[in-house]
Amino acid sequence: MRVSTFVTLISAIPVALSTPPQLPPISNTSALPVHFGVIVYPGFVFLDAFTVVDVINTLSVEFGLWPNMRFEVISEKKAPASTIPSISNSTFGQSVVVTSTYDEFIASNKPLDVLIVPGGYSSRSAIPTAAPFIKAVYPRLQYLLTVCVGALITAQAGILDGRNATVSKSNWANKTARAPNVNWKAPARWVADGNIWSGSSTASGLDLVLAWIGHVYGQPVSQYLGYLYEFDRADNSTDDPFSGIWEAVS
């Protein structure tokens, strides 16, 4: 056997014999979030909302948290919310069941620890009802997570004024001009400012939620979930090549 071949084989042994990831303990000993909710509206982007939701679902199952966790799908109306944009003639899309309207939820005084605000093709038409709801429930929240132009809906609630945030990088100048009081950041895969976490475009929701889980439940938990999803995470929040592609500069 050639020496070079032998060295190559020997160097591969640690990888081949490495121990698969084991379920880590949750390192956070403070009160963990229990009540979760997501806003939906006609034309919302399914992946914006349910990438984040699915990782939280997996967290609840893998770590046995589900007995205490509750989830709400919240919208303006009780009818199923469709991904079909109201500005489109399309008939192709999916609908999700709404468990509470904005008015019902506000009147109920139900607890809400984490609210997820997705973007969508009809996000502008969602603002008149979604933004007041976000403003009303924000004092109840431990955390607010936005994905893509969900940050623009949230900005209209006034709670991003003076804060750092990010949004999808295409048409960056036009988007950020809609909320000039926000400190928009690029490059940024996600931004955390206090209890508000904002993600860039749709696929960044996975980076966003894993980073948030690392903050709340511990980095080993976040890393383990990343392995389960077989996802090559962004190493840090500014690992954002799309800012350059779209010429987005803060």
Set out the fold topology.
Blueprint: H1 3-17, E1 35-39, H2 46-62, E2 70-75, E3 81-82, E4 95-96, E5 100-101, H3 102-108, E6 114-117, H4 123-137, E7 143-147, H5 150-155, E8 164-165, H6 172-177, E9 183-184, E10 190-193, E11 196-199, H7 204-217, H8 219-228, H9 241-245
Parallel strand pairs: 1-2, 1-6, 2-5, 6-7, 7-11, 8-9
Antiparallel strand pairs: 3-4, 10-11
Helix pairs in contact: 2-7, 7-8
Task: Provide a brief overview of the structure.
The protein has 250 residues and is of the alpha/beta class. The chain is built from 9 helices and 11 strands. Helix 2 (46-62) packs parallel to helix 7 and helix 7 (204-217) packs antiparallel against helix 8 (219-228).
Write a structural description.
With 250 residues, this protein is of the alpha/beta class. Helix content is 38%, strand content 15%. It has nine helices and eleven strands. It has helices at 3-17, 46-62, 102-108, 123-137, 150-155, 172-177, 204-217, 219-228, 241-245, and strands spanning 35-39, 70-75, 81-82, 95-96, 100-101, 114-117, 143-147, 164-165, 183-184, 190-193, 196-199. The strands form three sheets. Strands 5-2-1-6-7-11-10 form a seven-stranded mixed sheet. Strand 10 (190-193) and strand 11 form a beta hairpin. Helix 2 (46-62) runs parallel beside helix 7 and helix 7 (204-217) runs antiparallel to helix 8 (219-228). The radius of gyration is 20 Å and the shape is globular. 38% of the residues are buried. It holds the Pfam family DJ-1_PfpI. InterPro entries: Class_I_gatase-like (IPR029062), DJ-1/PfpI (IPR002818), INH-QAR (IPR052158). This is DJ-1/PfpI domain-containing protein. Residues 1-18 form the signal peptide.
